[in-house]
């Protein structure tokens, strides 16, 4: 009989912890909120053994949620690092292809008004785009990219693939995904966290 009482007590305590957590968190679970939830006094009528278990279980609940919050932060960190690694790879690809274009086009970079087209289509040494009825041998260069890469740190998916042109350092104003300095030819990410990548 005593075993049945203890078993019932364990189930009641665990249920009480979950119920108290749910009420304390306003019906929505959040590791950050749960970790900050203060310990709740044991219900009246419990034996000393049950009170001790209740206290241990409540303490364990708090520690578990602190741990869960830390794990959540670690996953967020790993996810950001993976995105930044992809961004760096795209940036290196753009820079290398721009330098190749320059070598094959009389030391000129793609022009601002036809930048994307000159990278995605075939051109001749002057940077002229290949017409539909032309022969490929007359336009031997390119394409250099299959598509313009997107900067994942720019929310607008259209702007994320666009390039802003200017003179001097990259502004990092997030108006476009990328920035090219027309004086130096340097190509950068146009978001404030990665202008110096």
Enumerate how many helices there are, as a single number: 4
Order of helices and strands: HHHHEEE
Measured by DSSP, the beta-strand proportion falls in 5-15%
Class derived from helix and strand content: mainly alpha
Biggest sheet layout: 3 strands, mixed
Helical fraction equals: 40-55%
User: Strand tally, please?
Assistant: 3
The average pLDDT is 82
As laid out across the biggest beta sheet, the strand order is 1-2-3
Distance between the termini: 70 Å
> What is the general shape?
rod-shaped
Q: Gyration radius, to the nearest Å?
A: 30 Å
Unreliable sequence segments: 1-10, 18-37
Task: Provide structural commentary.
The chain is mainly alpha-helical and 197 residues long. It folds into two domains: 72 residues, no CATH class; 97 residues, no CATH class. Helix content is 46%, strand content 6%. The protein contains four helices and three strands, in the order ααααβββ.
